[in-house]
Amino acid sequence: MPRIACFHVPLFPLAARLRSEPDLLREAVVITAGNGSSAHVIAATRRARKSGIHVGQSLPQARAILPKVIARGCDAECERSAQEALLEVAERFSPKVEDAGEGVIFIDVTGMEIHWSESKSECNVGAAEQRLGAAAIQAVAGIGLPARIGIASSKLAAKIASELPQSPTIVPHGGERAFLAPLPLSRLSPEMEIATTLTRWGLGSIGDLAGLPEGEIASRLGDIGRELHWSARGIDPRPLIPRQVPQVFEEGMDLEWALVALEPFLFVANGAFDRLSKRLENHGLACTRLEITLRLEPEGFYHRAIEFPAPTRDVKTMLTLMRLDLEANPPGAPVSGFTFVAHPDKPRRAQLTLFGPPALAPDKLASTIARIGSMIGPDRIGTPLSTDAWRPERFAIASFDPPPPPDIRRKPRRARGLLAVRVLRPAVELEVIVEETPKMKLTSIRSVSPVQVPDRKPLMIDGSIRVAAGPWTLEEGWWSDDPIERDYWDVELMTGGIFRVYRERESERWFADALYD
Question: Of 272, 276, 315, 274, which Cα lies nearest the Cα of 294?
Fold first, then answer.
């Protein structure tokens, strides 16, 4: 027979909300359903229950008992995120996981006791399943949810066992019928008409139903009655249905008050990113694309998508990139809720060396690139590449992907006084005086406007030419409608300074292209 383990989170709406707001764990908190005067309590913390608040009371009644009670409405986003996180923990114990909803999950643990035995020769299956259940409780507690575990050979018995206060509860092989027998028939959740019929027959417990002949039950109640009879005997009428693993990871919540400033929203989002990071870490994945959906007040949605230069699960990096994106693209309305969707990918690993310098950390590199891109534009950051063209100002930009550092540290080469070139972009227009000779002798030049040179004060190119070398001809695109024809010179001025200048043949205009250092 198969062995089924049930993960059960008591008071799931409350547990899901406390997972999103851990600061409320020690407070008197109630979860309500409905609005206005129809709002009623569906779950309460232990502190609130000790004060006299119980499920079914209206919210005004709860406030009359405890005026300082904190009320939170049902949050579908929090519950969905908590259920997904619970499913991901269950997948660490078995590949066959069934989602039963509302904080209940079934997994197939048939044969798993061999992995939880203290030795290969141990035959105590119950002790091994106890250790499995204790490890599952600890794993669920790591994601901020209190769980109870029950293990049996049927889903019904495992679920009822998981609801008992002593957890984990193990129902031994073949003991499901005896375990279910004293329970009322309502635990089978029969339909209204069938429940009425069973009551008329004088059946009060699951054991009474299990003692009747199966054929007689099926002939009078049909297939539904047959399935109830199987469940009463500890046999699953339907097999465990494994769920399909999702392709994305989601976290979100509804806010109690709409937020109009960025800083309070970032404070709330930090906790959601922390939960998202832990879920990604459990799968050995990182986030490569983050989709942000904000619910706006009074109605509407605002959607943003952030592409990360490198997969990351660092909370600070994701929060920084989202801050930069929202500062550049504000939603324009108060935010009443949010949903974060992380598209996963395998993280990049920085290879460490024994003797060489460390490689760049992918997370820090992604954050730095995003900061620079927010200031100058994402399309203006990258690695420059040369193009198949003659003009020196032509180039292309590729994504920044630095090569790995060398294996060992190398001493820098001794400088030999090489000449460096400071390229002027854009080129500075000049006024040039020439002598009309067969070789076009340049005599003096003067810039139309000051030249902006990094790390230097603006300077004017002005003076007589001491030496001029050239011209060097450049022709490009002669077959097109806009060909380029230039003549380049290198000139040294009497006042000092060496420049590269050129003349455009068609317009007869002169430009300073570079400064030699």
Answer: 272
Show Cβ contacts of residue 431 under 8 Å, excluding neighbours closer than 6 positions: 445, 446, 447, 448, 510
Count how many residues are written for the chain. Answer: 517
Burial class (CB in 10 A: 0-12, 13-18, 19+), 257: exposed
CA pair distance 408, 356, nearest whole angstrom: 4
pLDDT for 460: 83
Q: Which residues of 201-215 are buried (b: 16+ CB within 10 A; e: fewer)?
A: eebebbbebbebeee
Torsion of Cα atoms, 425 then 428 then 434 then 439, to 10°: 10
Alpha carbon of 284 to those of 93, 212, 276, 312: distances in Å? 15, 52, 12, 11
Gap between the Cα atoms of 445 and 460, Å rounded: 10
Report the pLDDT value the prediction gives residue 110, as an integer from 0 to 100: 86
Q: Let me know how many helices (H) and strands (E) the chain has, helices first.
A: 13, 20
Residues of the chain with pLDDT under 50: none
User: According to the model, what pLDDT value does residue 351 have?
Assistant: 61
| Cα–Cα distance list, 464 to 212, 244, 442, 447, 500 (Å) | 117, 79, 9, 12, 15
Predicted local distance difference test score (pLDDT) of residue 121:
54
C-alpha span between 101 and 121 (Å, rounded) = 38
d(CA 441, CA 470) in angstroms, rounded, equals: 10
Instruction: Report yes or no: 134 and 146 within 8 Å, Cβ to Cβ.
Output: no
- Is residue 144 within 8 Å of 14, Cβ to Cβ? no
C-beta separation of 14 from 21 below 8 A: no
- Predicted local distance difference test score (pLDDT) of residue 8: 94
The rounded distance, in Å, linking the Cα atoms of 405 and 361 is 12
From CA 449, how far away is CA 428, in angstroms rounded? 7
Q: How far apart are CA 117 and CA 55, in angstroms?
A: 42
Contact between residue 74 and residue 45 where contact means Cβ atoms under 8 Å apart: no
Q: Do 86 and 140 touch, CB atoms closer than 8 A?
A: yes
Per-residue pLDDT, 328: 84
CB contact at 8 A, 489 and 442: yes
Alpha carbon distances (Å) from 489 to 233, 465, 467, 470, 474:
99, 11, 10, 5, 11
Sequence-ordered strand ranges (E) for 327-420: 335-345, 383-385, 396-398
